[in-house]
Specification:
The chain is mainly α. This is Monovalent cation/H+ antiporter subunit A.
């Protein structure tokens, strides 16, 4: 397999959507809605760059490029373009170009159109990076970027509660799956030592043979199933229809919902073929296929109908990937491409209908074929492909799917039954969308229906025509797109020969049966819609309701925990903090048996004993102080005593720093206390003081024991030698301590200064607080309510 480097071209293709996203608001202000034509040049240019790699990819080659990110952890921004990534990338940029143009017409005059362009282009760049990423951590970064940008797009009309709910639901479900996927990638890196998709594919059976295979598979499936809306995680996808129609068209055709399917196709050679894989994926996929299609026929809103058919289609793809045979994977690839074309087109048709007739309710539509002929033609072309009618690319996919499932055993009979039922329901849904709004009489409630501008009808018409041309020129289609994509998914070169010409075989008979059943469902769609709605109403509870219940439960638990942990009392916070620190100091040493040996009493000089005695006197003075000012001044004795020890041990610079810090602390605290009450420091009885005293003693003992354990370990001079060697050579300073603070630990020192500044601001805010009217005595914030 040939592998070439294409750093400049590949990097530019990845960067163009993000560059356009940054410029979108400015271009919108300058050029208005015409900015769509300028911004569409970015994905169009990326499409041209990526199309330039097709000759290499079509011959089994791989294009790679990347940059070091965190070399110490073997993490790179590395990217890899093979047949699978290439086809996905062309769909993302090609359909993305049409979506940007469509957005210019659909959202013309919208006050936030510039912001929308920015979001949709960031979404495009995120998805493009996801399918091209080779390094696992790079893939995860782009995976989460798609979740974040989709959240922004779904919640674009953030003033509507339903839009906000849909955005939060999508982020919660796909974000949770993303965390599971991250855990899976970490397990792969740490246990299998594989850092990239290239490593995984080159390792052969390494993951399947790993004792952590089940764990890895479950975590990867959690990420894929949530992203690609497998039941019961499907609920976010229909609710994402609260986004503007261009988002729905793009999200359902070429981007986010296909991310999980992409991941499964990518990792199929490494994780597939096991009994667990061939059981879990087909089962989840079959259930999602049938239930999604049933819910699609039940819906009355065109966008919701199409959303549920996407859920159903994703189930079909997951089922085929789970079957895992060469024919099933070829069928999955053919269907994925066909679905991207016809579903993107049909969603844009839904937007065009809404734009021209001002409603998407199927039962309120009709007779639009005459005032909207181009939209009707586009809808019909896309529906014929979705229905699996020859000569359209959907026909190629359906024939291959049925041919792949002709195994004869009970399991495959169940799967082929699910495929026929699901495809028939989707056939009916396709023509419900493509025919019912356009045929019949124009309702009186629709006033002045009209065809949209060229940017609105151009996209769906192009995708419908491509659905036809792909099948008519099937040899070129297979050579450049489906063949390389299937080869990458299977892990070996394959040749696809299926054409639009029907063959008299079992697969064709099953296809005819699907069409016949689909026509029957179409004719009975009203009764089926009523029956399905009544059944679901009787059932009542569902995953969507369950999500709301889970969110409410999470909120109640959060409130309960917060009220217990964030009581608003400083003494509670201090007590918990000291207890946790004390436990963290003692428990590890006790469990690991690393408590220090009893130290020998050092031979101290008389002035050293005087300093120690001075520190002890200071401690006693703090404890017995009658007011807070005395306690603060006495507290400084410990700091000054420590500074004297530093001086006696030959560290005058450290001693000077300690003197300055301690003086500053005492002065600041004293100044603050002069603005507050200096009443008795602690008026509680001894039975309340004793636990705090014991806890304080425990914390102090913990630090003492910990430092003693460190001091008894053999001294490692590596850092000392490093600083001694390089302090002057690099930082040009003879005072090693100062060089460490200012140069080697400069960022840390800046952080400490920021902490001191923040503390000062907080103190300033505290002493300026006034409670009640002028003249009212200020409360004592240091007093606590027993």
């Amino acid at each position: 397999m040939a592998e070439i480097e294409a750093t400049t071209g590949g990097t530019l293709a990845l960067a163009l959507p993000f560059i356009a996203a940054a410029l979108a608001p400015l271009l919108k202000r300058i050029f208005g809605s015409a900015a769509a034509w300028i911004l569409a040049l970015a994905p169009a240019a990326a499409f041209v760059i990526l199309a330039g790699f097709l000759p290499t990819v079509a011959h089994g080659g791989v294009v790679s490029f990347g940059y070091d990110w965190i070399p110490a952890f073997d993490v790179r921004f590395s990217f890899r373009i093979d047949g699978l990534a290439s086809t996905f990338a062309l769909l993302i940029t090609g359909i993305g170009t049409l979506i940007v143009l469509y957005s210019g017409g659909y959202l013309k005059g919208h006050r936030d159109q510039g912001r929308f362009f920015s979001f949709i282009l960031m979404f495009m760049g995120s998805m493009l990076g996801l399918v091209l990423a080779d390094d696992l951590m790079t893939l995860f970064v782009y995976w989460e970027l798609t979740s974040i940008t989709s959240f922004l797009l779904i919640g674009f009309d953030h003033e509507r509660e339903r839009a906000r709910r849909g955005a939060i639901q999508a982020l919660a479900i796909t974000g949770g799956g993303g965390l599971a996927l991250l855990a899976g990638f970490i397990v792969i890196r740490e246990l299998a030592g594989l850092n990239s998709m290239s490593d995984i594919l080159a390792a052969g059976d390494a993951l399947r043979a790993s004792p952590a295979y089940v764990t890895i598979l479950i975590l990867v499936l959690c990420g894929a199933f949530t992203k690609s809306a497998q039941m019961p995680f499907h609920v976010w996808l229909p609710n994402a229809m609260e986004a503007p129609t261009p988002v729905s068209a793009y999200l359902h055709s070429a981007t986010m919902v296909k991310a999980g399917v992409y991941l499964l196709l990518r990792m199929q050679p490494a994780l597939g073929g096991t009994e667990l894989w061939t059981t879990v994926l087909p089962l989840f996929g079959a259930v999602t296929l049938v239930m999604g299609a049933l819910l699609a026929v039940r819906a009355t809103d065109i966008k919701i109908t199409l959303a549920y058919t996407t859920v159903s289609s994703l189930g079909l793809l997951v089922m085929l990937i789970g079957v895992g045979t060469e024919g099933a994977l070829i069928g999955a690839v053919l269907y994925l491409i066909a679905h991207s074309l016809f579903k993107g087109g049909l969603f844009m048709v839904a937007g065009s209908v809404d734009h021209g007739a001002h409603t998407r309710e199927i039962e309120r539509l009709g007779g639009l074929a005459r005032p909207m002929p181009i939209t009707f033609a586009a809808a019909l072309l896309c529906a014929l492909s979705m229905g699996g009618i020859s000569p359209f690319v959907g026909f190629l996919a359906k024939e291959e799917i049925y041919h792949a499932l002709e195994q004869g055993d009970a399991w495959h009979v169940f799967l082929i039954g699910a495929a026929i039922l699901g495809n028939a329901l989707m056939f009916a849904a396709a023509f419900i969308v493509a025919l019912k709004p356009f045929l019949g009489r124009l309702p009186e409630t629709i006033h002045h229906p009209h065809e949209g501008g060229v940017t609105i009808w151009f996209g769906p018409l192009i995708l419908g025509v491509l659905s036809l041309l792909g099948a008519l020129f099937f040899e070129t289609y297979h050579a450049l797109l489906s063949g390389p994509m299937a080869s990458a998914a299977i892990g070996a070169p394959v040749r696809i020969d299926i054409s639009w010409v029907p063959h008299l075989n079992l697969a064709f008979a099953l296809s005819l049966a699907t069409i016949a059943l689909g026509i029957c469902i179409y004719l009975a769609s009203s009764r089926l819609r009523t029956a399905t709605a009544a059944t679901l109403e009787r059932i009542g509870w569902g995953p969507d309701v369950g999500f709301d219940q889970a969110m409410r439960g999470l909120l109640h638990v959060s409130v309960f925990v917060t009220r217990r942990l964030q009581s608003g009392r400083l003494d509670y916070y201090m007590t918990v903090t000291v207890m946790a620190i004390t436990a963290a100091l003692f428990v590890p040493m006790i469990l690991t048996g690393t408590l220090p040996a009893e130290p020998q009493m050092p031979d101290l000089r008389f002035y050293e004993w005087i300093v120690i005695l001075l520190i002890l006197v200071g401690i006693v003075a703090v404890v017995i102080a009658k007011n807070r000012l005395t306690a603060i001044v006495s507290l400084g004795i410990q700091g000054f005593g420590t500074a004297l020890i530093f001086m006696l041990l030959g560290a005058p610079d450290l001693s000077f720093t300690q003197f300055m810090v301690e003086t500053l602390s005492v002065v600041i605290l004293a100044l603050v206390m002069t603005r507050l009450k200096l009443s008795p420091a602690d008026h509680r009885p001894w039975r309340e003081k004793l636990p705090d005293a014991l806890l304080a003693a425990g914390g102090g003992a913990g630090f003492g024991v910990f430092l003693l354990a460190i001091a008894q370990r053999p001294f490692d001079p590596v850092l000392s030698d490093f600083f001694e060697r390089y302090s002057y050579a690099i930082a040009h300073g003879h005072n090693i301590v100062n060089v460490i603070i200012v140069d080697f630990r400069g960022v840390d020192t800046m952080g400490e200064i920021a902490v001191v500044m923040t503390t000062g601001l907080a103190i300033l805010a505290l002493i300026r607080i006034r409670v009640g009217r002028k003249g009212t005595a200020e409360p004592d914030p240091t007093e606590t309510t027993p």
